[in-house]
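User: Structure please.
Assistant: Input sequence and predicted structure:
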Amino acid sequence: MKTYHLIMLLALLSAGSAVAQESRYTSAFNSSNKQSLINSKDLAKTIAGFKFSRLVKDKEGNISADLNKVLIHQGSFYFKFRLSNRSPIPYDIDFIRFYIRDLKAAKRTVTQEQEVYPEPVFGKELVAVAPMDRKIKVFRLTKFTVPDDKALFIEVYEKNGARHVYLKVSRSDIENARTVK
């Protein structure tokens, strides 16, 4: 077990709010403690501490964006991103956009996009990635489903630059979301 995971586990145990179980993606509430839920900040910190297992990746120049497995907790999806900057130039984030779009569009047809508005729950203050550094950001979205012919697209745009990264999350990735208990 890595040191960071051990520290997160000890912090959860000392707070008395969770008990470790077999899976690193689950935690059970202490039955003697009648607190109903882990608040959003604690859950986001826990999710940020999970081992990263890449679902999709995109690279533009020396900037790469990785998306961890999709997690679900009480009707909300959690998306964990890792932004890496392997260039000597800082990567200033202009905005991150989530939307559901058609996978295939025939010639001369209109594609439809449905904007989805996430709530950043970890890494809210992240506006830039320093040279030779990587940062983690966690977003929460209310539950949704994706039709067969559509996918969730995530775009990260650079301010005053052209190093934009695009991630596509398929329907099966969302349907196979891991539950955080």
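The two ends are 20 Å apart (CA to CA).
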